[in-house]
Design a protein that fits this description.
109 residues, mainly alpha, two-stranded parallel sheet, 2 strands, 39% helix, 4% strand, globular
Length: 109
Amino acid sequence: MQSAFERIYAVVRQIPCGKVATYGMVAQLAGNPRWARVVGYALHANPAPGVIPCHRVVNREGRLAPAFAFGGEDRQRELLAAEGVQFGADGCVLLSEYLWNGLKEGETP
């Protein structure tokens, strides 16, 4: 049986390049909608930052993590911008454009 962190990492690995997911969305897809904080803890402890794209997880408003574990908020912004993700004037990811639909590649609703 997978641990909570393993389930969270499995979901985060599915977020496509150029898309983001919210902490709550990751929690729900990992099996427990109450795990939003646990998602944050898991991403902060990410054992494979180059493999598990924790930079693609933002809060429900599209805000970046001020304590992004792998270089701070500016680094998270750089990584997302390099993937083509755009931000509004308020600094938030434009969720209407870049929020992942939660489907695996090739799946249809």
